[in-house]
Amino acid sequence: MDNINNIMLQAAEAFKQYRKVSGKQKAVFLRAIAEEIEALGMELIHTTMEETNLPEARLLGERGRTIFQLKMFADLLEEGSWVEARIDTAQPDRKPLPKVDIRKMSVPLGVVVVFGASNFPYAYSTAGGDTASALAAGCPVVLKGHPAHARTSAMVADAILRAVERTGMPEGTFSHVDGGNGFEIGKALVMHPVTKAVGFTGSFAGGKALFDMANQRPEPIPVFSEMGSINPVVLMPEKLSTSSESIAKDYAGSITLGVGQFCTNPGLILGVDNADLQSFIKVLAAEIEKVSPSKMLNAGIYQNYEGKKTVALAQENVTTEAESLVEKTDSIQGLATVASVDADVFLANPTLHQEVFGPYSLVVKCKDLAQLATVIQHLEGQLTATFMATETELQANDDIVEALRNISGRLIFNGVPTGVEVCYAMHHGGPFPSCTDARFTSVGPDAIKRFVRPASYQSFPDSLLPAELQDTNPLNIWRMVDNEWKK
Amino acid sequence: MDNINNIMLQAAEAFKQYRKVSGKQKAVFLRAIAEEIEALGMELIHTTMEETNLPEARLLGERGRTIFQLKMFADLLEEGSWVEARIDTAQPDRKPLPKVDIRKMSVPLGVVVVFGASNFPYAYSTAGGDTASALAAGCPVVLKGHPAHARTSAMVADAILRAVERTGMPEGTFSHVDGGNGFEIGKALVMHPVTKAVGFTGSFAGGKALFDMANQRPEPIPVFSEMGSINPVVLMPEKLSTSSESIAKDYAGSITLGVGQFCTNPGLILGVDNADLQSFIKVLAAEIEKVSPSKMLNAGIYQNYEGKKTVALAQENVTTEAESLVEKTDSIQGLATVASVDADVFLANPTLHQEVFGPYSLVVKCKDLAQLATVIQHLEGQLTATFMATETELQANDDIVEALRNISGRLIFNGVPTGVEVCYAMHHGGPFPSCTDARFTSVGPDAIKRFVRPASYQSFPDSLLPAELQDTNPLNIWRMVDNEWKK
Fold it and tell me: How many angstroms separate the CA atoms of B468 and B79, rounded?
C-alpha cells in the first residue's frame, strides 16, 4: 500500500501542472497515445486474443474504436467549446446595485481512478473511454488494470507512458496499478484522499461497492459505475403480426453477438401472448439452436453465466425454449439460451429481473398491453429500452413509450440495443441500478463532463483569465455572452 | 406518514402528465407563480418580518429576486436551448457499419423534494431557486417548509397552488408539507421511492444527513445540499500596503451584512503578518465595534452563533480583536466579532476551520506567503475564495490563485464574497463540505441541470420525436447537429 500512496501523491503533484496544460497540448498528448497504441501492432492483438478469447476481427474493431475515441477527445479539445464558457459582463451603472463581471467555465476535478472492464479490453479499459475523457478533462488517471487481461493492460499502459514522456506531460499524469484481483487495492485507490472521482465498468456488486465506499469517505466523491442492464424490448402486436420472423432473426443475432457479453445485450423481451408471439418464439428458438458456441472471456465469466442461467431456468414456471444444439468444443464456451415465462410469474419473482450476463434472453408473455405496461412499471433502471412497433402503435402508445424512456438512458425504435455508436447524441448511462449516475454518459464526447465542475471568476483582469474566458475569445469557441450564444 | 405517502403518490401521478407539458406552458406556470406571490403584497412581507426578524427593505429585495428567478426560468424555457439537444443523423452507407440516427436531450428526473432554507425565506425557500428550477425542469416538487417561517411558507405555497390551478397544471405538481422540525418527516420524504432528487440549503449536519440517507436507499438519488463555507479571503501584501483601510471597511460591511447570515460570509481572512496587516486589523476592529447589533433569524440561529463563537474564541492562542460595543436591545441580537490567530495555531486546530454562522470572522496571521499557501492547502471545499491583490501580485502568484480555485466554486478578485449575482456565469456550489455536489450550481439558469438527465432516442420517426429533436427545429433552439452548433 506504500506503493499506492506514492502513486497517488505523484498524481496529485502532476495535477498541479496538468490542469494548466492547454487543450491543444492535451490533444497532442491524446493523439500520441493513439499512435503509440497503433505502434503496438499485432503483438497487442495477439496478446489480447490469448487473454480474452475474443476473436481477431472484434479486437481489431475495438482497437479502432479506442483510437477513434482518443482522437475524438483530441478534436473536442482543439475545438474547445466543451468547457461551456459563460460570460456576464459588468454593468457598473445598474440600479439598485452595480453588476460585477462574472465568467464561468469547466475545470478538472483532480485525480481520477479508473477500473478497466473485462468485456472491452481496449475501449473500456486502460486507454478506453474513461481514461481518455478524464485525461481530456485535465485529470491525471490512476488505472487499475483488469486482472483478466493483465498483459494487455500493461502493454497499453506502457504506450500511454511513452506518450506522456514524448509530449512532455508531467510525470504522474498516468499511472498503472497492476493489483490483480485484490479488493484491498481497489479500496485503497478509492479511499485515498487524493482521488476526486472514479470510473468503473463491470458488475453491479463491484460498482455498487465502490459507490458505497466513495460515499463513506470523509470527502465523498462521484463514482461513475456502469453496471448491469437487461435492456427490455417491447414487441407490439401489429408490428409482430407483420414481421415476427425477421425480428426473431435479428434478435437471435443481437442476443448472441460477442457471446452476449455486452452491457446492452437484450435480456428481456416483452410481448402480448398470441399466435404471433408464439411464432416469434418458435423462430427465435430455432435460430438459437443453430448458434455455434464460442468461448467466453474467461472461466469466471463463464461460471457466472452458467450459475445465473441455471438459477433463472430453475425458477418455477419458467420454460426453456431453446439452447444451442451445436456441440461445445471447449469447456468455457457459453451456450446460447432463450426461455419464456408468463407475466404474472415474472412480476412476482424478482430473481427473473436480474441480468444473466451472456447469450441469454427471457421472453415475458403478457395477457394484454395493460399487463405489459404493468411489467414496465416494475422494471429497474436500464441502459436501453427498445420499442418494436409500427408508427401507428408508437403514436397510440405514448404512455408505454414514456414509461420506457423514464427507466432507460436510450430508447430505440425498431432496432437492436447492441451497438453503441460513439457520438454526441449517444447517452450511455441509465437510471440506477444500470449506473450509479444516470446524469452522465460514458460514451461520446459528453463523457468528459463526468470529470469536470464549473468554476466562476469574478472581476478578474482580462489578461489573467483563462484564454477560454478572455474578452477577445482567442480560442474562437462558442460561449454564452450576456445571455447570447456567440463565437 | 400516511399523509406523506399520499402526497408522494400524487406527485408521481402528476409527473406522468407534467413531464409532457411544453416549455412554453411551464413558462406560463412560472410567471403565474410570480404574479401570485406579488399579489400577496405587503401582508407576506409583514408576516415574514415577524417570523424572521429580517428588515422590510431586505425582504422586498429578496422577494424581487425570487420573482426575478421565476421569470428567469420562464425565459429559459421559452428560449428552449437549455435541453442541450444533440442530433447525429443517420449515415446508412457508412462502412463498415451503417450509422443509425441518434438524438439526445435533457429529460426531468421525477419528483423532487425541496427543503426550505431559514436564511432566505423567499429566494431559497418555498418558491425559491430549488423549486423554480425543478419545476422548470419538468419535475413535480414536494416542499418541506422551514419551521422558522411556517406562515410565510404556507402563504407562498398557497400562491403556487393557485398558479397550478390557474394554468391547468396537474394536481400534485406542487405540494407543501408543513412538518415542523420533525426529522422523521424529512427522512420519510427523502426515503420515499417516488423521490428522485433532493434540494437543501442549510447546516452541514442537516445536509450531510440527507445525503447519507439518500445514498443508503435501495435506489440512491442525488442530493444537492448547500451547506457551510468560511469563504477564505487572501490579503496580498502589496495590495494591503496601499489600501488596508478601505479593505478593512469593505470587509466590516461584508462580515456584518444581514447579521452575517449568508453562506458567502467571509469567515476567514488570511494575510502575511506585518505592519499593514496590523493596521488592517485595527481598522477592521474599530469598524466592528461600531456596528449596531441586529436580531438574528431566530433564537436557534442566535444560540448556535453564540455557542460556536464562544468555542472558537476559547481556543488556545486565539485573540478577540473586537466585539461590537453598541448595546444590545434584544436578547437575540448577534454581536459582530472579529478574532485573530497565528497560522501555526490555525493549522494545528481543526475547530478553527469550522463555520461560525453569523457576523464573525477570523484573521489568520501567516509568517510569509509560503505559510499562507500551506494554510490554503489545508482548507476544505468552499463556496467562494477571494484574492485581494494588485494585478502584479495576481500574475506572480499563480500557484496561490490555482490552489484557491481548486478548493472553491467562485474565485473573486478584489471584491467581497457576499452578493451572489443571479446570472448564467454564476457558479454557486463548491467542493465538499460546502456542498454535496460541486458539479452543480444552485443559483442562475444552470441550476436547472440538477434536476434533469440526458435521454437518447434512436431511429425515431421525426413526427414522434419531442419537438426539441425534430428535423425542422420547430422551437428554433440551439442544437448540436452532426457536430456543429446550429439554430
Answer: 11
